[in-house]
Amino acid sequence: MQFVARFILLTLIGIVAIPVFAATISTGTGDKTTLELTTNSPEKLVFINTIGDIRTEKMKHGQDDYTRLVIPTYTRNTTIGIPELPVKRQLIEIPYNAQVQITVLSFEVNEFNLAETGMVHPLYPVQSSQSKCGNKHAFEINTKAYQKNEFNSDKLVSVDILGSMRGVNIGRLNIAPVQYNPVTNTIKVYENLRFEVTFTNADLSKTKSEKERLTSPYFTAPYSSLINYAPTASRENMTNYPVKYVIVSDRMFADQLQPFVQWKTRKGFTVVEAYTDVIGTSLNEIKSYLQGLYDAGTPDDPAPSFVLFVGDISEIPAWDNGNGVTDRNYVEYTGDLFPEIFYGRFS
User: Is the pTM of this model over 0.85?
Assistant: First the structure.
């Protein structure tokens, strides 16, 4: 599984804007672009964000020319129509019940006039993301934002609380080390930005116990995206934990499923066959059954790591999220977009 809501490629709609020229702004530090975690404890994190070279690209939209700033591993700000600026986003683990505080400890500031780099045009405005099957969005620019003779005042560092996945609370660091004055066409670059993320009133006991209760070796990969994630056991020990695999099916497929069940059992899974004539056929009945297994999980009798639905939606109904049908709601129990169990369907 891949984390939901990781960074969507920006598709520029209307008359497509294409980078046609590139130059480089050297920050003068001689360093590579990095985000280093220098202190990692349950109570606080300390980071140093360093920027190497900034690449500039000349963008065209119709007859208008713009500039784009590109920093490796960075995405962009998201307010439509304002000047587009690089933003570093990093997922972190947040302890249970913690209030998150950000303190900027130190930095160095360098200013660069973009015209002196040969980029005389304003920064490209942020555009809407375009879905693969959606309608095209018109080009948008906030002219008032481009008339302000001042640097934008976005926070250098902020945190968004995203939700919880299988007992681990997930947040996202947003680091915005570049500011822009559109009238003077000048950028400020905050270099060697050192900051602290403090977790106050955290319930560390619950944080630990939920990890232990819901441990699954198959969630190691998604958790590895959390820069400060601390597992409760070594990888070697985790491979000895039982892994529960639930099959939700109409009874008509029971005989056909037996070779698959036997194969999964030989592979070491604890397979649970759940037939709808027993657990129920409705969306809520099936979800209630699965959530019951999840809530009752212990390290010795674990919550399911996998759920396989067998049958078309006429046999096993799916949820309608407004953009099509999905099975995710069956395995999401904390009111966000992150599933607590890997899921799939044979149909």
Answer: yes
